[in-house]
Amino acid sequence: MNITQAKKRVKELTRQINEHNYRYYVQARPVISDHAYDMLVKELEKIEHQYPELREINSPTQRVGGQITKKFPVVKHDYPMLSLGNTYSREELIAFDNRVAKSLGEVYEYVCELKFDGIAIGLTYENGSLLRAVTRGDGIQGDEVTTNVKTIRSIPLQVNHPEVPPKFEVRAEIVMPHQSFQLLNSDKEMAGELPFANPRNAAAGSLKLQDSALVAKRNLDCFSYGLLGEKLGFTSHWDSIKIIEKWGFKVSQYTRLCQDMEAVFSFIAECEKMRPSLPFDIDGVVIKVNEYKQQAKLGFTSKFPRWAISYKFKAEQGITRLKNITYQVGRTGAVTPVAELEPVLIAGSKVKRASVYNADKMHDLDLHINDMVYVEKGGDIIPKITGVDKQSRQPGAAKIDFPEKCPECGSGLLRNDGEAIHYCPNTTECPPQIQGKIDHFTSRRAMNIESLGPERTAVLIRHGKIHQIADLYELGHEDILGLEKTYTDPDTGKSRKVSFREKTVNNILDSIDKSRQVPFERVLFALGIRHLGETMARKLTRHFGHIDKLMSATREELLAVDEVGDKVASSIIDYFSDQANANVIEKLKRAGLSFQTDIKEQSVTGVLQGQSFVISGVFQQYSRDDIKSLITSHGGEIKGSISARTNYLVAGENMGPEKLKKANSLNIPVISEAELGRMIRQ
Ligand code: IVH
């Protein structure tokens, strides 16, 4: 394909991909298969790789991300991003309507919309192309998060419509749908990390990730609810919503033009009713005067528009008695306090347990046995205790203190500096840790031992057939045939009889056997090393190539790996320096699991192939992690200490004098971050 043909094809592919993207993510009515769509994107990527000059700034390949943003610049909004006054009752809303009626003295209509519980964003387009995306910030200026926002597929990168003005801004809300939120939190828990408290926090955290490829995986969504610009050519909010919908923006289908307050109240009632079944969080309804002329006449207070207001739903809250606090021990030994409650009905479901997160939170709440506590529930999230009614506390009620010993095995609990979570250090004998580790090991994204779910595993553990992950590979037919036990789910309290018949036994042994084929990166993830998620496992396996190299890596060598920080390095060192873990690895090796890989981290250009670098000091332009990934992504290698084989020392400020001395004595060139940049560009 020559460049002229390539240009034509790029244009055609861009058009097709954008169109299919719109059909899938905005209209939810795809007309081609996911595979066919992926093939179009792949083809475009290939051409862009061959002819980088044809890569448009808003190419649909941007959706997969990959660009790194170190610092999100602060940008002033073209139009201030105001917030809304809140109302919580019918009376307050009627008072608002009376003020509007009085000021206008003429007929008016309202547009009622959902109040999305996410992150507000301003999307500026110039000549139809998405120029920047800025968060609300303080309303006057916010953070520019354009690269990350480009991965959200319900936001058009390009608007091609004859009516589109040269410049406009769409105001919208970025939300994390419940399904994405649950996936994300279960991944976080698997990796032994703290989950996000709610989808809004998760959306905010996602927009601030440095790696846009990770943002792309968070499956954010975006609903547009406003249009701003000069000479737009229409006169009402309702029309503007219809227009942006036509331009390809995703707008909510639950928007209604209301002639009077009765219509407004019935809209509110409908929304409140369907709230639990929506796939994302809303926290109320927004009511806006429709005509722009009337909006202008009403104007603004110092903080809010006088032509719009929000009606906030009551938090899905309940009050009930706290019976006790129990402590759940997870697979990494993390101890989480759980409130055991007298059952209470909240938003249609019975709540018996609620999260208290950690010892600090417990301390802040100052919980006592039999306290009346406020419990809140949002969407599908685990309910949480938000407060205590101290007035109703019974005299002499016992204060609940976080335990010093593991409730399951009695070991003294530990807490690392700077972390909120307490851990039980007895990783090999503490029962829930044994079960948790095996469950993690067998899970789909780890070894994918399908036939062995938590129930069966629990039975095998209780019969003393398995004690740790490596025992799985020593199980024989006769060990498990005929086993029988009642299994009680620790969460629901429901019991079920589990028995191992011929067919079950064969399935289990087959799926254990099949897991021997699982690649090294998933085996490493499956070990359940604290703070070691899937991405990190992949990076480590590709960096070290073999488990022995990883096991013998020094702290410095670990820190030299892209994205490995102190926490992960310490966790890896702790894990492998425990003889019990080293024995497990030895057994797993003998069982034939894969502990090596030939796959290397993909390099972007390979210009630094074969060169080894040592990094030292503090940098101006990039962070240390950026410099590491810059080097490895271009084929270079990073070493923790200087030796005769080091090619370059990348030096920042306050570099250790010893390193410099050593580099000089070995005649190793010392380069700055700017020089490194130049080397790569050349
Ligand atoms: S209009 C001047 N419409 O609520 C009008 N805001 O409290 C400004 N929000 O920062 C906002 N859904 O993040 C508007 N349908 C909707 C909304 C909405 C959610 C958020 C938005 C804003 C906050 C105001």
Assembly annotation: single chain
User: CATH fold name of the largest domain, please?
Assistant: D-amino Acid Aminotransferase, Chain A, domain 1
Major sheet? 7 strands, antiparallel
Mean pLDDT: 90
Estimate the helix proportion, in percent. 25-40%
**How many alpha or pi helices?**
24
Structural class: alpha+beta
| pLDDT < 50 runs, ≥5 residues | none
Strand content: 15-25%
Bound molecules: 2-(butylsulfanyl)adenosine
The tally of structural domains comes to: 6
The second-level CATH architecture of the largest domain is 2-Layer Sandwich
Cα-atom radius of gyration: 29 Å
Instruction: Tell me the name of the CATH homologous superfamily of the largest domain.
Output: DNA ligase/mRNA capping enzyme
Distance between the termini: 26 Å
Helices and strands, with pairings:
Layout: H1 3-26, H2 34-50, E1 74-76, E2 86-87, H3 90-104, E3 110-116, E4 119-126, E5 129-135, E6 141-143, H4 146-149, E7 167-175, H5 178-190, H6 199-207, H7 212-216, E8 221-228, H8 237-247, E9 255-258, H9 261-274, E10 282-289, H10 292-298, E11 308-312, E12 317-329, E13 334-346, E14 349-355, H11 359-365, E15 372-376, E16 384-389, E17 414-415, E18 422-423, H12 431-442, H13 454-462, H14 477-480, E19 484-488, E20 495-499, H15 502-514, H16 520-526, H17 534-544, H18 547-551, H19 555-559, H20 566-577, H21 579-590, E21 612-616, H22 624-633, E22 637-639, E23 648-651, H23 657-665, E24 670-671, H24 673-681
Parallel strand pairs: 2-11, 21-22, 21-23, 23-24
Antiparallel strand pairs: 1-6, 3-9, 3-10, 4-5, 4-7, 7-8, 10-11, 12-13, 12-15, 13-14, 13-18, 15-16, 17-18, 19-20
Helix pairs in contact: 1-2, 12-13, 16-17
The protein binds 2-(butylsulfanyl)adenosine.
